[in-house]
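REVIEWER CHECKLIST
Item 1: Sequence provided? yes
Item 2: Single chain? yes
Item 3: Sequence as submitted:
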Amino acid sequence: MKVVSKLQMPACDVLDVLCPMHLQIDAQGLICRAGPTIRKLRPDVSLTGRAFLDAFAVSRPRGITTIDSLWKAENVKLHLSMAGQPPAQLKGVMVPDGKGGVIVNLSFGISILQAVSDYALTNADFAATDLAIEMLYLVEAKSAAMEASRKLNLRLQGAKVAAEEQAFTDTLTGLGNRRALDQTLERMIASEVAFAVMHIDLDYFKVVNDTLGHAAGDHVLQVVARAMIEETRASDIVARVGGDEFTVVLPDVRDIDILERVGQRIIDRIEMPIFFNDTECKISASIGTVWMQASTAISRETVLEDADIALYASKHKGRACQTFYTPELRASANSVKPPIGRGERKV
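Item 4: Structure as written out by the authors:
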């Protein structure tokens, strides 16, 4: 009995099940019935009794503005927009109903994703054989997978950046390390521009370590690192390359007076009292500086060696001073024994 009753459903109810987005239009062009999904698009407006061409604008085929022109579009794909808000762009096909009117079956076409969002549609709003909802599930699953992949890529990229930064950073001071310095020098030399390198060694640092302990030494190194950052330009690169050794690379230096002033500022700043647990840590800084002119053909190793030779000269002069490299310094380097204090590094 139940199966028979379904087979005897009225034709209009059959259309509601099979084509929930259909319209029935009479011979005068008035909408006499609208499927449940179409009604859901404009729940506050009754479509029944309205002229089809008042409720819908036909953009394709062009020129359909009257009922007579509409009747000529049987079995032709229609592109329509529904009056009201939110906008609804629809596709449709129109066939005669055998009673002088037509039946128009509508769909959202490629705008279905937006329509489902705008009108809160579910699978109950589509014919049972319509794969639209299943397609939406696939789209959502793909979108979710792509979003998960995007987030994973961002995390991996962040981890890569963090690892690279760690590889080029001194963990105690936050300055660049020897690897960062080498990379910077290679870039400076390849660019063939004028730049300078200051090699800085802390005087009497071993005394601080031996008398106050490594915690005091770490504190001193961190204070010194901040001081060097503050006394140099934002474009300069400061690196910690050894226990108590630092190197500053100064790009685009065109006047030796600038180097003299920067070096003196660093020396004066480091001689300022540094306290650890109310005890003063007395240190100073010796500097060896190399000023490289533009287009000078030289290797990174030679630049660092020249700066080191100039630093030895500063130590030999009595510490707490800056010496600029000259070829004469290299000639006498082997005969000059560094004074006590040179090479006193924190390990």
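Item 5: Key structural point noted by reviewer: The mean pLDDT is 85.
Item 6: Recommendation: ____
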